[in-house]
Amino acid sequence: MKKQLSSLIFPFILLFVLAACNSNIEAFQQWSKAEDASLMEKELTLLGQHTQVLEFHKMMLMECTDQKQKPYPRMNALLDSMTILRSQVQSRRMDLKKERSQLWEAGKASKNRFEEEKNKAEEAQKQTSLDTAAFRQHYNNYQSLVEENGIVFISHATYADSLLDRLIQWEDSLEYQGGSIAQSKRRLDDLGMKKSSGLYLDYYQPISQMQLIHKEFQGMLVGLENAHSRYLTARPDEGFFYGPYLVDRPDVLTTEGIFDRLDSTMQRFRVEEEKAWLKIRR
């Protein structure tokens, strides 16, 4: 009878032990996933900022003519520090994840081992927070150097938008010129002079200059329209840099030069416009 009772109780005890063990493993597994997610959350911002700086830095140095000059050595050092911190944060989380996976797969999530892993997790959270704070400081210092030295990346899409905005403004000036020329001609005609007379031709001289300048102005705007089309159809994520020891783009310099010429040409137009009005008012 005792033998029969023993044979009946033992399986129940075994089932109870297995159930408790499975419960420990399940709890450990859930805890491990939550800890990994917590570390991952701290890691994600760091990863995004590092990727952003790394891409910017590589593109910038491709355009740099002398990396030994300020601020490039300091920027290189800051990026190296950020890269080391990123690697530390990633390796720490991945190592812990691997270790815990091996434990629950092997069924070794004992109560003592669970407590040991919790202590490791607490230390990992602390170190990751310190690394993240250090990374943020290096990142901010890098961005400060970019701003202080006027280093700017302008994508083709951004430059095309800038060209269009300024082009529209100068087209308003072209329209103004056309209206001013028409008005000057009407006022001259209202004086009733013969168009073949020397006096009429004298009065018409500044208007003639206004017309020539207007045509020249229009040609420059056509050049800007063509430039806008080129940048609009270029790869939008590519572009160029402004900053110390960074290569100038000849096509950009040429395009920007057109705006300088538009300004000086508009000034010439206003001089002739004033001459025309002064003659008509005599």
Biggest beta sheet summary: 2 strands, antiparallel
Helix content: over 70%
Name the poorly predicted regions: 8-21
The topology string of helices and strands comes to HHHEHHEH
Could you say which overall geometry the principal axes of the C-alpha atoms support?
rod-shaped
Spatial strand sequence of the major β-sheet: 1-2
The average pLDDT value, as a whole number, equals: 89
Got a strand count? 2
Strand percent estimate: under 5%
- Determine the N-to-C terminus distance: 138 Å
Structural class: mainly alpha
Count the DSSP helices: 6
- Roughly how many Å is the radius of gyration? 37 Å
Task: Spell out the key features of this protein.
282 residues, mainly alpha, 2 strands, rod-shaped
Protein model, in words:
- This protein has helices at 2-62, 72-106, 111-148, 156-190, 198-233, 250-280; strands spanning 152-155, 239-242.
- Helix content is 84%, strand content 3%.
- Strands 1-2 form a two-stranded antiparallel ribbon.
- The protein has 282 residues and is mainly α.
- It starts with a helix and ends with a helix.
Summarize the structure.
This protein is mostly helical and 282 residues long.
Give the helices and strands, then pairings.
Layout: H1 2-62, H2 72-106, H3 111-148, E1 152-155, H4 156-190, H5 198-233, E2 239-242, H6 250-280
Antiparallel strand pairs: 1-2
